[in-house]
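Sequence in, structure out. Go.
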Amino acid sequence: MSLGEIIQVTWLSLLVSGSAVLLAMAAGLPAAVLLYLKKFPGKRLITALVNTGMGLPPVVVGLLVAVLLWRTGPLGFLGMMYTPAAMIFAQFLIALPLVIGLSLAAFEQVDPEILLQARALGASRFQTILVLFRESRMGQLAAVIAAFGGVVSEVGAVMMVGGNLKGYTRVLTTAIVQETRTGNLRSAIYLALILLALSFLINLFLTWLQQKGARRWQGPGWK
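Output:
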């Protein structure tokens, strides 16, 4: 592969996975708050479905998205099949249960007395939710780390709905598969190293933020 092609697939990988995680956070955090604060029929069933989704094979998600976006599918009129948008949609569905499940677990680690004190001091519902997020922010970062790691390294879903089209929907993972199939093992190894380096650097940054928040919460006198 040429340098231009490597830059293109690397950029598309970051764009697709980053967009999917951001969308999953935007949809998953409110859903996690709702599951944590509200009592309604079917709550346990939804929570069980979320937990199941956290371990759902990406290729199954790819199949589901392909059925939805195929020409004869219910969303076929959108013309999204074999486009980066379809890849983002698939990775969003992979990341969403991870965000909801891990965020909900983080919320459940917050001392309920803190929320009760906030309400007793006159905090509104919105302010109480902000307190909840503040107290569980390290858990939210863990959700981001898990979600990004889960989508940036997957290949089945993006291959099925993106088609691995050169210069359009080919990302690092599908490029590695393609180069391996054609016997270009050196290129495949280079791409794998780039993928590992990107994952490491992004997760290192997120982990640094998480640990920085932990030290701030513990205070200077923590031993």
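Check: The two ends are 52 Å apart (CA to CA). The mean pLDDT is 87.
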